Amino acid sequence: IWQELVENYRKSLTSPSFSAWIDPAKPINLQNNILTIELPSDLHKNYWEKNLAAKIVETGFELTGEEITPVFIIQDDEPIVTKTQKDSPVELPNIVKKNSKKALLNSKYTFDTFVIGKGNQMAHAAALVVSEDPGATYNPLFFYGGVGLGKTHLMHAIGHQMLANNVDAKIKYVTSESFANDYINSIKNSTSEDFRQEYRNVDLLLVDDIQFFADKEGTQEEFFHTFNTLYNEGHQIVLTSDRLPNEIPKLQERLVSRFAWGLSVDITPPDLETRIAILRKKADAEGLEIPDDTLSYIAGQIDSNIRELEGALVRVQAFSTMKGQDITTSLAADALKSLKPLKEKSELSILGIQEEVCKYYHLQLKDLKGKKRVKTIVVPRQIAMYLSRELTDNSLPKIGAEFGGKDHTTVIHAHEKIQQLIEKDITIQKEVNDIKQKLL
Ligand code: ADP
Ligand code: MG
């Protein structure tokens, strides 16, 4: 889309305007039909909003049949479309901010920005207790639940709060994948000692999404020792996962049992009231004027994932900026119209995709899920993995498991491979689209 767009602009603008306005623009991503474009200055943003946004929608629609909404961000800025923005509601002292940065905490994920509701009440309470008295109560504290429900947010909030209480607190936040990578690199570079220093000398260790420890023997071994050291010294450990420890495949028994020493709390999807409250808070934080009935409408459209809820708000906001209209329920309905199919997509199953792919290529399901390495099977298998990743909410390990117990890295690889093929090879592109059509 981007190339097509740029070509269009090149034709319709004089070349000095082209190099002044278009050249510096950088497409960031296209997600949920929102095209994020990075621009170097406010001036550029104004120009794009006024003169070029409509063209994006037009070209986008021509090429994809979907309504693409452009969102412009300024370099090193947050993706926010309105110009009238209040300061963020929480003002942490500068020194805390600095340390938070060092700990790689997201400054937006604080207790102040967290809305408490039925599904997360317990988790929130436990997080507060732990941040006030780290290492002394629930250790480890373990959050589990579906994607986009606030696990990472709460984890960071604990970190911020601890720093607010004690600016010298040493805090480390990592995803389980970075932990694994750091560990592997430390072996490669013979820097195991540094690795240990880094992970065992902290007051609070936050490890996110530990379900990805599955299958990583060496990393689990190392984490076991990290855990023991921290635990024995009374340092706090907080972990998250999409499920309970004993449901994580191939997680060592000794880790499972240690994780149960503390407190495990689940976070469940927010009810309508909580979703409205979350939207209200975000809208206020961004200085948006949105009537109550419109907020209820948006909250009614997206019922599980809070990240999607936020996405919907961004989308509505972008629509209102683009059309120069206030945010109303009918505008919101318009903005969210093309998101609807997304919801149905999540009801697709991996098996459904596999069966459709088999039908399309005249293959047997057992071959698709098997290990044969002939091209006539490998490509359809990768396409099925690609579609499972694109069109369902299943985690990578889950998708791998459904393909005869393959590793999640195989799924990542397949996804990348097909993505490249789709760009290069129109036959593949067409085949993938055909299958998609049949599925949706
Ligand atoms: P998870 O780690 O469970 O997948 P995140 O913590 O990344 O989910 O949350 C997804 C998004 O939703 C984040 O932007 C987060 O700030 C927001 N969010 C989640 N729960 C709440 C809440 N209770 N109040 C306000 N925002 C929330
Ligand atoms: Mg998370």
TrEMBL record:
Signal peptide: none annotated. Belongs to the DnaA family. It comes from Vagococcus martis. InterPro entries: AAA+_ATPase (IPR003593), Chromosome_initiator_DnaA (IPR001957), Chromosome_initiator_DnaA-like (IPR020591), Chromosome_initiator_DnaA_CS (IPR018312), DnaA_C (IPR013159), DnaA_dom (IPR013317), DnaA_N_dom (IPR024633), DnaA_N_sf (IPR038454). Residues 321-440 are annotated as: Domain IV, binds dsDNA. Residues 104-320 are annotated as: Domain III, AAA+ region. Oligomerizes as a right-handed, spiral filament on DNA at oriC. Keywords: ATP-binding, Cytoplasm, DNA replication, DNA-binding, Lipid-binding, Nucleotide-binding. This is Chromosomal replication initiator protein DnaA.
